[in-house]
Amino acid sequence: MESRAAPPLRLADLSPETIARLKTFRYDRIIEKHEGPESWEWYLRDPSERPSWLPEPVSPDIEDDYKPDPAEFLQIAGHDVLLPVGRSHHPNITVLRTIVGDEGKSLTLFLKDTTYVDDPKLEFFSAGFLAVCDRVPGERFYIAHVFHEWFMLTPIG
Questions:
Q1: Which of 1, 65, 84, 97 has the most other CB atoms within 10 Å of its CB?
Q2: 29 versus 36: which is more confidently predicted?
Q3: Cis before residue 8, ω within 30 degrees of 0?
Q4: Rounded to the nearest 5 degrees, what angle is found at the Cα of 68, between the Cα atoms of 148 and 64?
């Protein structure tokens, strides 16, 4: 009998308890010289939940420019992975390299995200990211605990 791969995981598949646990996790980040650690809570908010620090629109006639962009799982090399990027980034992400380590407990990912890069000549400087992810204990998925900018260098060897 042939085994089938599990369907891609979605945040909506997780229990409220699991989501609450993930919101307590932190990740290290260096993006545009801004350093973490950051909380996963921001990316795991319900899209209908308005941040407490964000004022309500002044009047109904003024367009609310708050556009939530929560995270969602990506399937990378057969693994469900949660990265600290909004769903709108997913079509612009290319996985350049995946390294599975520690007997499958960790993933190192080299990514290209062209979401904010208008000129392909600038991708080398502006679109590379490195993510180190660990499998969440008791779960089948991985979550990033390091997410940094990375110059897109060719692997050695």
A1: 84
A2: 29
A3: no
A4: 130
